[in-house]
Amino acid sequence: MVDTVEAVEVESPEAHATLHVGFLMMPEYTLSTFSNAISVLRMANRLSDRDLYHYSVFSLDGEPVVSSSGIELVLDGSLKSVGDMNVLIVCGGYNVKDYCTKPVLDQLRVMSKKKIPLGGMCTGSYVLAAAGLLDGYRSTIHWENIASMREQFPKLNVSSSLFVIDRDRYTCSGGISSIDLMLNLVASIHGHQLVQQISEQFTCDRVRTEKDPQRAPLQYLIGASQPRLVHAVTLMEANIEEPLSLDEVAHYVGISRRQLERLFNRYLHCAPSRYYLELRLSRARLLLLQTSLSVIDVAISCGFSTAPHFSKCYSDLYGKPPSTERRAFV
Q: Which CATH superfamily is domain 218-328 in?
């Protein structure tokens, strides 16, 4: 069942036109995310027996780019050759920052000035953000990149949703979330019935919405019978820069500290203090690998008051100090 579609459907004016969707392939793009997206469009055409969607594939200069899995696609041209289209989606993947060159960003700004709606899949959202094309919009990106995105673009409203549709900006977190994004787009234009048929072809039990989280909620790992433990972990995840004390966590959850420790030990097999520490260190590692923040700034962002304490905790968990981690990826 599609949660976002009204029971009484009004056909969109675009429903009778062939809609052109373009994809800009960044080097090391995620092939599965891209193929999932075009599969929805292809299936919409097949099931309707009409050319509802036309899709084209571009690179900056029209030359082939290699996906993260080592596969090349036959492209339709360069980004400058893009004519009128209904939406242009940037397909990102690994090391996207290395490929955010001035020509790419300038050309995307040209697309925006032409009033072409823009999207980003996986780390394609980062490219749009770097071009200043997500300012004033809600957006999302793969969960591994959320922290660094928020640090680098602090004024952006970056969500942890599977996908976000905000006016003429379409972003999704990657993986199979591109299916959800495209199904919701198809639903908004061609209605519930077609999307239901597409979902059945893909053996999807439902179309997920923006309210669905990217990562499996903790209750799926430990069972839905422990809402207080889920609440405690949620509090920890929301308070990285200024960590709560365990007494505060227990108070907000409505149990004693001793009960909190028993829950963590029984279901997560570690003390709550250790879980919280590793959560903060995991966030720190993402910032070290994905941003140019100094080590001390990373430490402060993750709730460590001094660099030596941060370095010791980091080394104990990852076997190397944060400075070495940073140098290895510069």
A: Homeodomain-like (1.10.10.60)
